[in-house]
Write a structure and sequence with these properties.
Elements: E1 2-6, H1 10-21, E2 25-29, H2 33-40, H3 51-60, E3 64-67, H4 70-76, E4 79-82, H5 97-109, E5 115-118, H6 126-141, E6 148-151, H7 161-166, E7 171-174, H8 178-188, E8 198-201, H9 203-234, H10 238-246, H11 267-280, H12 286-299, H13 301-311, E9 322-326, H14 341-351, E10 355-359, H15 364-371, E11 377-379, H16 383-387, E12 392-395, H17 407-413, E13 418-421, H18 428-433, E14 437-439
Parallel strand pairs: 1-2, 1-4, 2-3, 4-5, 5-6, 7-8, 9-10, 9-12, 10-11, 12-13, 13-14
Helix pairs in contact: 1-3, 4-5, 5-6, 9-11, 9-12, 11-12
The chain binds uridine-5'-diphosphate-glucuronic acid (UGA).
Length: 445
Amino acid sequence: MRVAIFGTGYVGLVTGTCLAEVGHEVVCVDVDEAKIRGLEQGVVPIYEPGLEPMVQANHAAGRLRFTTDAARAVAHGEVLFIAVGTPPDEDGSADLQYVLAVARTIGRHIERPVVVVDKSTVPVGTADRVREVIAAELAARGVEMPFDVVSNPEFLKEGDAVNDCMRPDRIVIGADNPEAAARLRRLYAPFSRNHDRFVFMDVRSAELTKYAANAMLATKISFMNEIANIAERVGADVEMVRKGIGSDPRIGWHFIYAGAGYGGSCFPKDVQALARTARQHGYVPQLLEAVEAVNDRQKGHLFELIQRHYDRGEDEGVRGKVFAVWGLAFKPDTDDMREASSRRLLAQLWEAGARVRAYDPEAMDEAMRIFGQRPDLELCPSAQAALEGADALVIVTEWKEFRSPDFARLQAALGDAVVFDGRNLYDPQEVEAAGLAYYGIGRGR
Ligand code: UGA
């Protein structure tokens, strides 16, 4: 099928590339000329394992093309995806200006019946607004043309997005017209071969499904962070509790890791936006607001542990100390630092007069872009280099390469011989046996 994708960000690029991979003819369109020029040369602007070779191969095969020419993209596609960003407004609701701008462009250029697919995460009711905008543009042109607007939320995880897209556990399609639903079934059929992955529903339920999925996952994390905070006070270890509850299939092993709080471009934004939608409809979303509040507090927890440790000492507390920080990205296998817990920690350390030596396997350029040059930050080329001259080590992101350090070497390198483990990577006894003080999350035993 012929597909056009508006927005070559994370979602648009991965979706477009995977659709090309299974044989569709895809045109990706973006307003950012530099990005489009780069993509035409095979340069992928985000770090996502496996994506770049796939982009290059499909581009070379002529199935994946890039353009800034929106009219050309509309003329090409029988299915038109809207996959542009929906950043949060000041009040936490999703800003729809880019989505509606694409709808206007589509309305201005369509010459035949199309299916428009909302792929961006958008509040319930957005498909109706997209439909209105397209209809208004058609009316202004004096054209009468049937078209459909379908909601097809994405469930990609950064770092594993290609796999999630190629082998989805479900394909949610919200369509009020069975013909549009059938067209999307054909489009996605190659991804649903051995087992029917399709879940068809009405448009609004599909829009809400996306938020419900992310809010549920965020709730699991905040719940475990709350248990961790209780564990710290009652002398229990949240890691034991996790093992003790995960085997119950109703609870499950996934997303019950206590830590330094969730970040990224999805959970914080989506929980807030759903809460906002609820309030707009006259409902007070007590649970969602608590999920958000617990997470916000959790992002400051590592610093609390640090302060508590240093306030016990004789000297001036945290002021003048040097902290090695391992991990800046909001999670492993990405260079994304949006809403990352590391940002809160660094701000708190600097505020308290400490210096930071930071290392992340992928996010160093992003860190440079965000923080720039500053006297209290050294961006180091390796985990080992970050330890040089440091008093303490703080782990913020659970990259694989941080999982089994040589604790004796750590002990020798760190001036104050203390480790703050924000992702519970280590066995406290093993760390302490090497002569280091150890702080984890929710490990009060
Ligand atoms: C999330 C969802 O997992 C995807 O299913 C969804 O499609 C995507 O949002 C989206 O809406 O686009 P993502 O933000 O890439 O994906 O990252 P996750 O792997 O879900 O991690 C989110 C955060 O939760 C990270 O900061 C991670 O460290 C934290 N986390 C995760 C925990 O603190 N504990 C856990 O047990 C799991």
